[in-house]
Amino acid sequence: MLLSLYFLYFSNILPLTENLDLSLHKGSFDDLYKWDRSLYGDAPLSEASRRKVFTDYGSGVGYGWFIRRGERRSVAINGRAPGFSASLERFIDDDVCVAMTSNIYSSITQTMADDLAALTFGENRAARILATPVKVEPAILAGYEGRYRFGADFVFNPNMVSEVQRKGEWLILISGGGGGTSYLIPQS
Question: Which residues are CB-contacts of 103 (< 8 A; sequence separation ≥ 6)?
C-alpha cells in the first residue's frame, strides 16, 4: 500500500534563485516506491542479503538503513543533496511504504514521513506547525557571519569547516566538503 506523496515547496519563505526541474521529484518518488516493492522479492537482493541489510548491527542501524523496533517493525532510509531530500520508510509486516520527496535541503521529510505513518496506523500525534521566520536586525545577523569548524568527533564529516554568510536579509550555511548551501531560518 502506497500512502502518499508530500511535495514541499516553500517559495513563500525562501527566495529561489535557480530554475528547478520539479519533474525530478516525481521520478525519484516513483523510484523509491519501485525499490520498496522490489525488496519483497528476491531481486535485486536475495533473502539472505535482505536479512543482512535489515539487521541491527548496533545503535539501530543496519547496512545504511535505520532499523526501528516498536509497536510495528520498520526500516527507514533517507538522504539529501542541495535542492532535494527524500525519505523511505517500510513497514515490512504491514506492507506499507511511506515515501517523501522535497525540493528543500532539510530533514523535514523524515519527520513528515513519521507523522504520516502515525496517521495511517491511527496513532495520535500533536500537530506540528511550521513557524514563520522572524525578522532579525541586520547587525545581529552580521554577528553570526564567519567560519566554523566542527570537532574531530563530528560523525558525518570530522573537522569540517563551514561558513555562515549574509545573503540579503537571510543567513546561509555553506557546508565544507561539498555539502552544499542551506538557508538558516530564524525561529525566535
Answer: 7, 8, 9, 20, 22, 25, 83, 84
The pLDDT confidence band at residue 128, using thresholds 50, 70 and 90, is: low
Angle at 30 between CA 6 and CA 1, to 5 degrees: 75
Asked whether the beta carbons of 1 and 116 are under 8 A apart, the reply is: no
Specify the range with the lowest mean pLDDT, choosing from 15-19, 68-72, 111-115, 153-157. Answer: 15-19
- The Cα 51–Cα 60 span in angstroms is 14
Residue range 80-108: average pLDDT?
79
Verify that 57 and 115 share a domain, yes or no: yes
The domain that holds 105 is classified in CATH as 3.40.710.10
Share of the chain above pLDDT 90, in %: 18
C-alpha cell at 5: 506523496
Based on the domain organization, do 92 and 158 belong to the same domain?
Answer: no
Distance in angstroms (rounded) separating the CA atoms of residues 151 and 163: 15
| pLDDT tens digits along 51-82 | 999 999 888 888 888 898 778 889 988 877 66
CA atoms within 13 A on the CB side of 99: 17
Strand-pair category, 180-184 with 170-175: antiparallel
Q: What is the distance between the alpha carbons of residues 117 and 4, in angstroms, rounded to a whole number?
A: 10
